[in-house]
Design brief:
The protein is α/β, with parallel strands linked by helices. It is built from 15 helices and 11 strands. 47% of the residues are buried. It binds pyridoxal-5'-phosphate.
Length: 460
């Protein structure tokens, strides 16, 4: 196994597409789309230099937000299709990539354990995928509210305003997971049409108790939407050949199979560039809500066009092509391809957490469930204000170190959570920031110990 060169793959991809283009006969490009060489040179110089203003998302030392470059296979596959620029809105906008979209959507549904007849399509991202799920929830139960955990992504609150739906917030337990007793009470006292559960929160990667919440929802005839935008691919870790990982909530990922709809983002853990989310519906008849006709599309076939089951119109065929090619090269398997990468990320988080626990200068907030770890510099005095100040200080010092910087992120937690997990901390303010590290690159497994040691020495 070797890490493929992006340059070599890009070269092969562009060469092939240019040969294909040439096969249609040569022609002269119009002079208007020519570019003045000096201006082009200056534009590229400035552009490439300005891109250097990014943080090093590709490097193990970047363990901040949910950011990493796409896999070179995705990059080359995307570029090849982008050169042609198919639009997956209608089948005639890009027949091959539309077909590929149907294939990868079926692959994602199968990975999640959803039935063969599952209806779905790719979206611009998790926001639109979740919007479509909430919209279908409203169409099915126009007079009922949706219940969403306090720790769910903020998109649910915003989109329920867009959709003018009533949203009820469900409290969480100490670890930030939806509280089952609170859900049970809510289902008894409110008219809830759909419950949103999160498989891997954006904050700390925690997983709602999906397996236990499902029967409660069923008893009250409430539908279940799982927001697995971040964590959906971790379902591979519930398969027989997957490695054992302490603290990994396999049963809740398994239970995604029973949900009514799922949002999953290939541009988070599916190795893709941005612009690739996915929405899946267990009941394919919800396609009727999307139904519309168009005077200028849908002519080449009577099959259901992707644009007829999607709220977005133009969508990059390249996004579907890139995901298709990536999953051929790196399959959705528990111990190969995508699964091997995810297993390394999950182990990285466990290694990171253990290293924090052995360090005197750092304190672990709680053991990680997936691949995000929260911790804080052990404060001089046991107060929330000291934790807050020390976290902010270490975040900045580590990021701005001229030699061997480490990039983390900050996460603000309420005093109650911090005190329950660490009873010795005095609540002299309402909340405090802790450090958060998203270990979504498999290289983090190798570098976790060294990175924590570096943070530890900077904190001391
Ligand atoms: C990232 C994320 C979203 C939003 O998705 P985008 O792809 O950023 O639009 C929604 N929910 C969860 C749990 C996420 O992690």
């Amino acid at each position: 196994m070797s890490y493929p060169s992006a340059q070599a793959l890009l070269h092969r991809a562009l060469q092939h597409v240019e040969d294909w283009e040439a096969s249609w006969g040569s022609f002269e490009h119009h002079s208007s789309i020519g570019v003045n060489p000096d201006r082009l040179d200056a534009a590229m110089d400035e552009y490439l230099e300005r891109l250097e203003g990014n943080y090093p998302f590709h490097h193990p030392r970047y363990a901040g937000q949910m950011l990493k470059p796409p896999h070179p296979v995705a990059l080359a596959a995307y570029t090849a299709a982008q050169r042609i620029n198919p639009n997956n809105h209608a089948l005639d906008g890009g027949p091959p990539t539309s077909q590929m979209e149907q294939e990868v959507v079926a692959d994602l549904a199968e990975m999640l354990g959803l039935p063969d007849e599952t209806l779905g399509h790719l979206t611009g991202g998790g926001t639109v995928a979740n919007l479509e799920a909430l919209w279908v929830a409203r169409e099915l139960h126009p007079d009922q509210a949706i219940a969403v955990s306090e720790n769910a992504h903020y998109t649910h609150g915003r989109m329920s305003e867009v959709l003018k739906m009533e949203m009820v917030s469900v409290p969480t337990d100490t670890y930030g997971r939806l509280d089952l007793d609170a859900l049970d009470t809510l289902l008894d006292t409110h008219d809830i049409g759909t419950v949103v559960l999160t498989a891997g929160t954006t904050g700390l990667g925690t997983v709602d108790p999906i397996a236990d919440a499902l029967p409660l929802c069923r008893d009250s005839d409430a539908r279940v939407h799982v927001d697995a935008a971040y964590g959906g691919f971790f379902r591979l870790m519930t398969y027989d050949q997957a490695p054992d990982l302490n603290g990994f909530p396999a049963s809740h990922f398994e239970a995604i199979a029973e949900s009514d709809s799922v949002a999953i983002d290939p541009h988070k853990h599916g190795l893709q560039p941005y612009g690739c989310g996915c929405i899946l519906f267990r009941d394919p008849t919800v396609g009727r809500f999307y139904q519309h006709d168009s005077p200028y599309t849908y002519f080449t076939s009577d099959e259901l066009h992707l644009g007829e089951i999607s709220l977005e119109c133009s969508r990059a065929g390249a996004a579907a092509g890139a995901l298709w090619c990536t999953l051929k090269a790196l399959p959705l398997a528990p111990n190969d391809g995508v699964g091997a990468i995810l297993a390394a990320c999950l182990r990285a988080a466990r290694t990171w957490a253990e290293a924090v626990e052995t360090s005197d200068a750092l304190t672990l907030l709680a053991p990680p469930e997936t691949d995000i770890v929260a911790y804080f510099p052990t404060p001089d005095s046991p107060t929330l204000s000291a934790v807050d100040a020390a976290s902010q200080r270490l975040f900045e010092t580590a990021m701005n170190a001229t030699d061997d910087p480490v990039f983390t992120s900050l996460y603000r937690l309420p005093a109650e959570t911090l005190q329950t997990l660490h009873p010795s901390l005095k609540a002299d303010q309402d909340d405090a920031a802790v450090l958060r590290s998203v270990l979504m690159k498999p290289e983090h497994e190798t570098y976790a110990d060294a990175l924590v040691e570096r943070l530890s020495s900077l904190a001391a």
